[in-house]
Amino acid sequence: MAASAHPFTNRLSKERSPYLLQHAHNPVDWYPWGEEAFEKAKKENKMIFLSVGYSTCHWCHVMERESFENADIGKLMNEHFVNIKVDREERPDVDRVYMTFVQATSGGGGWPMSVWLTPDLKPVVGATYFPPHDKYGRPGFGTILTMLARQWQEQRDQINQKGTLIIDALTRATQLQGSSEGGLPGQDIVDKCYQRLAESYDDEYGGFGDAPKFPQPVLLSFLLRYHSCHKETADGKKALDMCLHSLRMMARGGVYDHVSQGFHRYSTDRVWHVPHFEKMLYDQGQLVSAYITAYQITRDEFFSDVAKEIIDYVCRDLTDESGGFYSAEDADSLPTHDATEKKEGAFCVWTMAEITEILSDKIEGTDVTLSDVFCKHFYIRENGNVGFEQDPHKELVNQNVLLNQTDIGITAPELGITTEQAEAAIKKGKELLHEARKERPRPHLDNKMLASWNGLMISGLSKTAQVLGDSQYLERAVKAATFVQDNLFDAGKGCLLRSAYPGPGGDIEQIPNPIEGFIDDYAFIIASLLDLYEASYDQRWLEFAVTLQEKQDQLFWDHEASGYFSATGNDSSVLLRLKEDQDGAEPSGNSVSANNLVRLASLLNHEGWKQKAEQLLTAFSGRLNSIPMALPEMVSGLMALHTTPQQIIIKGEPGSADTEALLRVVHSYHLPHKVLILTDGDEESFLHKRLDLLKSLVMKDGKATAYVCEDYQCQLPVTMEEELRDTLQK
Question: In the prediction, which pLDDT does 183 show?
Answer without folding.
Answer: 86
